[in-house]
Amino acid sequence: MNNGIIILDFGSQYNQLIGRRIREMGVYSEILPFNTPLQTILEKQPKGIILSGGPSSVNAENAHLVEKELYEQGIPVLGICYGMQLTAHLLGGKVHKGVKGEYGKAHLEIVKESSLLKGVTNNSIVWMSHFDEVGQLPPGFELNAQSGVIASISNEDRKIYCVQFHPEVSHTEEGGKMLENFVFGICDAEKNWKLTNYIDKTITEIREKVGDQKVILGLSGGVDSSVAAVLIHRAIGDQLTCIFVDTGLLRKDEGKKVMDNYGEHFHMNIKLVDAKERFLSKLAGVDDPEAKRKI
């Protein structure tokens, strides 16, 4: 689907949350790897691009970067946390390691309102999670807010906006307003996406891709595999076989619940593998959590 918001993934734990916030507004969003070729991004005709946060440093030898031409396409860009540092780094500013890492709540002092911060209350609480920080703005950028560090900058002419904090998390009091300002006020995106449309589209795509072949799916009972199982089952029915492995490390009665819910309620073909002895015998006598994980 085109004309939505593209989120480039730099490894942030909040990527899926950014996408969810935008979809809750009724706007399509899609998460792509940070190194997706620019041409591939442009073919999707995005109304806006969000550069997510991430754990690495822009000054590292193997730093995750984007093509500088991304900023020259006239498409609004929002850099979040690492995305802000990356933008400053690529466009002529300077990023350095902070005196100390900052994690948690901070107060946002608005210095000069931008289209992104329109209507945002001065000194509202934002959520920080970073080690590096912007020390010098790129040419053409203005300081919009600070929180002890440079917290928000923008180049209105080029429609590039950056924040050091995370507007997508609930701890940022007016983060929703900022995202709405970007999606609707800056990107002029349309409310034309519904979950039901996505479900129907996905089922059709699965059916076309699988044809008359069969599919095996590892079902853990968690959210990701469960959603995948239901969508695939709706698309191809009994052509799907789910395999559920009981490791002996599940919660009480969880194995029975998975078999009942997906076998009896959704009428899926599920094969139960009882591997309790195999797992527990190898873990016997081991106390160290990391050693257990590797086993």
Key traits:
globular, nine-stranded mixed sheet, single chain, 2 domains, Rossmann fold, about 300 residues, three-stranded parallel sheet, 12 strands, alpha/beta
Question: How would you sum up this structure, described in words?
Answer:
With 295 residues, this protein is of the alpha/beta class. The chain folds into 2 domains: 5-186, Class I glutamine amidotransferase (GATase) domain (Rossmann fold, 3-Layer(aba) Sandwich); 195-294, HUPs (Rossmann fold), CATH 3.40.50. Helix content is 32%, strand content 27%. It is built from 9 helices and 12 strands. It has helices spanning 15-24, 38-43, 82-90, 175-186, 195-210, 223-236, 254-265, 276-283, 289-294, and strands at residues 5-9, 29-33, 48-51, 77-80, 94-110, 124-136, 142-146, 150-155, 160-163, 215-218, 240-246, 269-274. The strands form 2 sheets. The protein has a 9-stranded mixed sheet, with helices on both faces. A hairpin with a 4-residue loop joins strand 8 and strand 9. The chain starts with a strand and ends with a helix.
Which structural class do the helices and strands define? Answer: alpha/beta
**DSSP E strands, number:** 12
| Beta-strand content | 25-35%
The rough form would be described as globular
* Radius of gyration over all CA atoms, rounded: 23 Å
The CATH topology assignment of the largest domain is: Rossmann fold
Main sheet: strands, sense, barrel:
9 strands, mixed
| Helical fraction | 25-40%
Counted up, domains total: 2
* Separate helix tally: 9
> What are the secondary-structure elements, in order, as H or E?
EHEHEEHEEEEEHHEHEHEHH
